[in-house]
Fold this protein.
Amino acid sequence: MAEQADSLRRWVHAKADDVTSEVLAGRLRGPHVLAITSGKGGVGKSNLALNLALALQIRGVATAVLDADLGLANINIILGQEPDYTVFDVMQGDRHLADVVVPGPHGLTIIPGASGLAEAAAANLDQVATLLAEFQSLESQVEWLVVDTGAGIAPAVLAFVAAADEALVVTTPEPTALADAYGLIRAVDETDSPVRLHLVVNRAGDALRGQRTGERLAGLVAKALSRSVAVAGVVLEDAAVARAVVRQEPFYLGAPKSLARQDVDRLADYLLDRVPAPRRGGIAGFVRRVLASVPIGRGDAAPPTGSLKNQEPGLPMANAYPSTGPAYAGEQGASIQGTATGEDRAALRPRETEEGPR
Ligand SMILES: Nc1ncnc2c1ncn2[C@@H]1O[C@H](COP(=O)(O)OP(=O)(O)OP(=O)(O)O)[C@@H](O)[C@H]1O
Ligand SMILES: [Mg+2]
């Protein structure tokens, strides 16, 4: 059985390599894949993913948002949409990706992934090949794929982050969020993925202090880990965000003069001006890496039910990355605190010149 799974996996890799080289041959560079992630939950990932994607789209850069939070369909909720289908229907061969995507404002493409992606863990080979081929159709249609992930260091989250070209790690200035962001960055570091990391301090009370808070975390990462993280920007605490969420309208459109929109505009400019060309095979390469990190050929296994957010060991995606150290142990979120050493935690405590706990 294990041998069979191995040969299936090799076949998928070979097949996916073909897809990726086709992409690379067809266009010198595929779209950018940007994962939006965080250590702690509720720090503003989904709002940032959607509004940043809108900022790109409105700049004339064709953009798609993939809802890859395996628990709840965050993006659709923020937009007040109830999609009929998800990526799961594509995987089953019941729908084409084009029938599943939901048009968003200004021509933005929204891809409801949510539970459908969780079930990719139980996909059989045909289904995996179908998903790859369908996602390849996006390749020529978008320039940026923004992936809204769940929070924490669960393998299902890390799989998306490690597979992306770029990841925006979102934190608030709270010490707990900063410690969890550090834990997440450390877990990504342990995957050896070449994903480039960028930090966003959201809900900052003050731009300068928010920037300093971000730089302090980046400094700790540079000192302790083998990779660096760039501070991409700060988004201020802005009541317009919560109001827009209640109205189920992106603040970028509903509050065009808001401070949060100005900050998101700066982040979009940062992405367009500062991020180098992608070199990891575009969307096909991304999908291939995500699928390669979940056990393939388990179509006979019952698909997981419910949310994978608090997954137990033994659920299919729990094997996506082998445990490589304490960062992977235990529950997401809670365990991240445990990954920062005492010295790390002391270094993360706010200073007088920076954001305090709110
Ligand atoms: N810049 C901001 N200013 C004020 N409130 C904000 C800001 N960003 C986010 N919020 C508040 O935080 C809430 C949670 O945001 P969001 O759903 O985007 O977080 P998340 O990280 O995606 O959460 P989860 O981990 O549950 O997916 C929003 O509904 C909003 O009320
Ligand atoms: Mg979310």
Observations:
- The two ends are 53 Å apart (CA to CA).
